[in-house]
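ok so I'm stuck.
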Amino acid sequence: MLNLLTIMLLGVIYGCMRMPNRQTVSCEIEERTIYLALNEKYELGEEGFESDDPLIAEVVDGTVVGKSKGETIISSSCVQYKVNVSDLYTDEKLEMNKEYLKPYLYSEEENRYLDEVLSYLIDKAGYQTRAGAVEAARFLLLRFPYKLKYFYENGRLTSETDVADGEGRYYHYGLYLSKYKQKELSVIQNGPAVWGEDMFEDYTETYNQNGLDCSGFITWALYNAGFDPQDIGAGPSEDKYDLTDIGEKVAIEDLDIDMIKTGDLVGFDGHVGMVIGKDDQKIYIGEMYWVKDLQVRIFTYEEFLNDSPWEYVMLMDDFYQADGNLSDSW
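replied:
not stuck anymore, here's the structure
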């Protein structure tokens, strides 16, 4: 016959066996990837992460910071990030005095890596959204460390007469920095030549560094964001489909600044750019311009509406359909 002490002891043991272990966290590890430039920050949205190598990527108060070139892992109990940190590009910043790109600065491996980063950033902003198109344009304007030259196109893929591929335009995914990209090209006139490489320019009848023209830059950004406006020009043209036809074209004098969104296109006869940002006082236009090549031009609202060369804006809501993770600033 069990005495009272034995019964009590057995009860405690049985209760302990039934009690759940509150120290155990059961979850399936979720793996993700982050690409960072040096000193770029990424908000994790939660704390509790640790880095395998803080010299490459440091975690402080729920934010990971790219410290040096390399690859490492940061993880919490249920989430693991592979963090790639590179010096091949920068965080988004406005640099007005970039050096011009020289040909073959990037290897095939580096070109492929930059294409991965571009795709990652567009996906993060929203593929096939307004934000994705803005992100593509900002990549060349704000993240790519070199400036591209304006090159008068030797032809377009949609042209009935002057047909060329990769000559002042590049209607393909990614950046045109390495010779392996030339396998994508279909029609050659005076090329092939990568961005930054000298090539004969039919319009000026001289040799110039290959780059993009104004509509080539805009259609490249749209194409990389998941849209296909075709390899078309700036416009306006009465008898040809061009970039003035893809949005709601509104004259500057009929606009107020609140009607214009980041990602809308702007233009005047034969030229086109994109609004890549706005703040409380200024609007930022990204463009490939024959005077100063690839650049960001800054206008106050008053200057833009009343004292700028821009004649109209293409309001692009119907084209993009969705805004994605759109931001007016960087």
